[in-house]
Design brief:
The relative contact order is 0.08. The protein has 2 domains: about 110 residues, Ku70, Chain: A, Domain 2; about 120 residues, no CATH class. Helix content is about 40%, strand content about 20%. Helix 7 runs antiparallel to helix 8. A hairpin with a 4-residue loop joins strand 7 and strand 8. The chain has about 325 residues and is an alpha+beta fold. It has 8 helices and 9 strands.
Length: about 325
Amino acid sequence: MRAIWKGAIAFGLVNVPVKVYSATEDHDISLHQVHNADGGRIRYQRRCEVCSKIVDYEDIDKAYEDDGRTVVLSREELKSIPAENSHEIDVVQFVPAEQLDPMTFEKSYYLEPDSKSPKAYVLLRRALEDTDRVAIVQFALRDKTRLGALRIRGDVLVLQALLWADEVREASFPSLETPIRISAQEREMSAALVDSMAADFEPDQFTDDYQLQLRQLIEAKLEKGESLDTEETFGVPAAEAGSGEVIDLMEALKRSLEKKRGGGAASGEDSAKPAARAAAKSTAAKAAPKTASRAAPKTATKAATKTGAASAAKTAGTKAAAPKTSARSARKEA
């Protein structure tokens, strides 16, 4: 990792020098734009609408327009803003973690000690551990004054950028203002469905299906060129993907519970979707072995469930047939 910023955490009279690193990265496949007629790359140019000349980046200033008046701000003027020149992460409060609304969470950054002795860094980390609180901080990064929260992840301090209060919109939907009657049976069935799906969250169990299928599409196109058949590649017609049937709420809850409990037979449409997803993961495994290895246990579990259900059905059929056989034997003896 490469540090994107250096500064110091101001913790009372204690100064904690740190390096700042991006804690997350995008795993999406990078695509660029081309002209569909000849495959030529699409390029964007910074062109001035007054003189029609292409303008170099170093010759570009920023401007603000209000009621027809335009104020042009040079780079030197923008750099003169006091907050822009600050390299301090200023601790202003220590608050309970549960008071932070996840809606305000923005980007996360790792903080590394940037001094010969990390004692001050460890002291701040221990203070957060002992008090079970997070530190609310203010800092300037990339032309913006930001609000943040210092928290702990393992042995590392994490700077969690937060949105300002006026950057979070209020939700106001007229459709939710109308009183809705929910029956006791609907509540019971929805609670039962929640219980049947209850689990501990393990992020590694989940995969980005779109990226897997995009990789599968790219590999197939490289192999077959313009003769590519997407229905053959994914095992389901593109037009049918994502189609869903609108059904009654109670019926939906019942079918969902039956599916989870293994008591109902899956419809052709329901079974086709997992099959298509499994096929996509299998093909994409060549390009992404780690992701495929995570998907394998899921497939095995589903197969085991189906096998178990089939065995149970056979056993039940055998038990049901036993009384009939006994009855015939008794008649013959009589």
